[in-house]
Amino acid sequence: MSADNVKPQDAKPLAPKTAPASWYVDPARWEIERQKVFADNWQFLAHESDLAEPRAWRADVLAGFPVILVRGDDGVIRAFHNVCRHRAGPLNIEESGICDGYLTCKYHGWKYALDGRLRAARDFGPAADFDPRDFSLFPIEIETWRGLIFAGIGETLPSLAEQMAPLDARLDDADWSSLKVGLRRQHLLKCNWKTYVENYLEGYHVPDVHPGLDAEIIAAEYKVTVEGKVALHTAPPKSSDAVYDGLWAWVWPNIGVNVYNKGLMIERMSPVGHHATQLDYIYLTPGGVEVPDATLAMSDQVTAEDRWITERVQQNLNAGVYETGRLSPKHEVAVMAFQDRVRAAVG
Ligand code: FES
Ligand SMILES: [Fe+2]
Prior knowledge:
Helix content is 25%, strand content 29%. It is α+β, with helices and mostly antiparallel strands. Bound molecules: FE2/S2 (inorganic) cluster and fe (ii) ion (FE2).
């Protein structure tokens, strides 16, 4: 071993370069990310309480893929691409509802059974080479973890259970069985989804961007650790009645799992193309009771502050002046891990 390779015991950690600005502005990257980051990974779709009864359905868009989730008369929840096999019409366009036992296309009225089979091609007329059995809806795999339903669009999916193991270890025997959706909120941000996720993955900005939150936590003890595909924030509250108390986690590629002192909030950071990000907040409370005002007020405040900074960062990335910077080994390990994962998936 040459002397050049010997590291002194007290060697400082390295500060790797950030991902280049092109990651956040090039629409061509988005087309690859849709497949490699989103379709090929588990994406949070809904909570079981969203589909409490047979025939309940819910439509959504996951990384540009319109999907529909429905509970059959047999009690089984199934997911499909929300794309009719005739000429690609939508089966349902509103957010959620109860159907009449069929998913019916809004374009020419083809009817599908809740297991996806085409039951009636309305007034199609005689056609020798058309067999309805060949035109079932395209299925999507789903898996459930603690009542949260995840969709896997791609053909090769990782293990959801393995991915969630670090959270299970923290949650231990926490009982979420009585939780129901108490409130949904959406915010549309003018930034690339990665700009928002990376902001979520570090507490370095808290003193400058979130003075209200900063006053509630012991900033010097703010820590972010990475365990596999999970990043865990620890920010001890100054007082025992603080809103932010409990587990504050992020799971690849795009959800936050935030355990408050009075419930749970799932935050999905959904890309809308490469230039916008929709935040879907799903508050889960015991029996679906109202979300405490203090929780909402703090959430609104923090979201407004994060919107303000991430939209301005995006504007600067778009401007073409900045190419790359450096990441702090003290504060930005989860940003490094995220960028490594995106690099591994997309190249
Ligand atoms: S596109 Fe669905 S019935 Fe024509
Ligand atoms: Fe923030």
